[in-house]
Amino acid sequence: MKDSTFAFERKRNHIVKYDRELMTKTLRAMRRVEEIRSKRGEQLFKNRMKIKAVIEKKDAIRELEENIDLIEPAIVREKRIVKQKRAEKLASQRATKMQTD
Hints:
It contains 4 helices and no strands. The protein is mainly α.
């Protein structure tokens, strides 16, 4: 039975003579790995927040549409309803006029 972890452990347990150049390369590589890891984490976070912002905006618009009567003054609401009724009446008059012609 061969297990790669055992081979890795054998390599890791091998005593290596101190080499200044090897140590500096190792430290640079460790810093670089951490830098890459943090950049990837930041990018992942930004991507998640973009999606969240879109969802929150849609939710806010939906909530406003459902509860517009809570923030819309009564006078404005009445004017809007009157305008809608006038537009419907005018459209129906045009339709009957076109049918008679």
